[in-house]
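Fold sample X.
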Amino acid sequence: MPNLFPVNADFTESEIMQEAEAGTTTRFGRSWKFDFNAGEFMITPTGKIVQADEKEAWIQWCMKTILTARYKYIIYSRDYGHELEGLIGSGVQRAVYESEIQRMVQEALLTDSRTERVDGFEFNWLGDNCSFSCRVSSIRDEQVTLQGNVVI
């Protein structure tokens, strides 16, 4: 019977690190489809919740992150959500608001290892209301355009 704890094993530190790095692939996982307009999970005619594939699950995670304020709900970790509410009443120029919105959204979405980059921001102002959109790319080079809104 082979020894569980080999005494004369010739492992180098770099081999161990390579094996550890090879085993750390990012998993996308699955989820259930959520209808953001209705505010509830999608259900089949037979009453079962509709499953989302890996890409849809990642997109839903991104959308939910943009819609959720950080630290507001104790069920979420302290890394989840955005801090856009902190911009309300700051009284700075629009360019500063846009820069901060971009930074905060990037910070929120890049906490997930499935997200590779967040760019392509566009802003539309209507009074104190700032609507924005951005392009989010996954590590699989899948892209989605997300939209958000902040009332300053």
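Fold sample Y, listed below.
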Amino acid sequence: MSIDPARRDVYMSSPRETKDISSNLCWWKIGLGVSLAGIAALTVVLIVVSLSAFQDSSQTDVYPMLFPARLCGSKDSSVLQSLYQLPKYNSCTSSEASCAAVPSEICVEIPKSPINAVVNQTAIIPVKIQVPKPDWDFIEVLWHHTRGTPQDFILKYGLRSCSPKSKPQLWWKRECHLLLEVMPAHRWRMSAMMNAWLIIWNVEVKHAGRYQVTVKSNNMKEACSFVDLKVTEDSKDIRMDGQNRTQKQQ
């Protein structure tokens, strides 16, 4: 068999396959649909995340709120005035009022009797903090509810970067940067006054018990004391309890 030299290097091209236009169009539509569905799902996720972030930022801006201490001595409120005038223990002079292992120069005064509150009303737990040294740079006040649960810690109220030239008689009137950090579990329920009084709105029976207040500073030992809160269903119980205490004192 002889080969024509003129056609020796000539190769036959394979026949071209004809593309199915309708099939390609179908796959293109499917891909476009999947892409649009993915974009829609991603958009929904971004919207949800944005709304959650906005709500969190709104709560952070509005809560927590630090309330002025002048309410504690207000003559317009008999309840606050009575709390202000309650007989107190002093952690510097009474072992019953201190829970610190080592005595501190900071003195914390707490009521001798439990604070009474009624369900669904506002409970206020008063303390009086005395800071003898005038050269402190910061003070932190921490509140705990001693229930033995992970949510014991309620809030931290701090005064930082305080001016050394500002030395008023009342420690919370010092020129400082104020900081109030309330744990998320208590943010809509609890806050503090500028003099570190604890506020509980819409109090419930579960809020009853012992509350511990801890005071820290840069050049003084840590001070610690506690206050008991009694929560009842009816205000009549509080009046009866108050009468019984008066009779015992007499």
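Sample Y note: The helical segments are 21-62, 78-84, 235-249.
Also: Residues 53-63, 245-250 have pLDDT under 50 and may be disordered.
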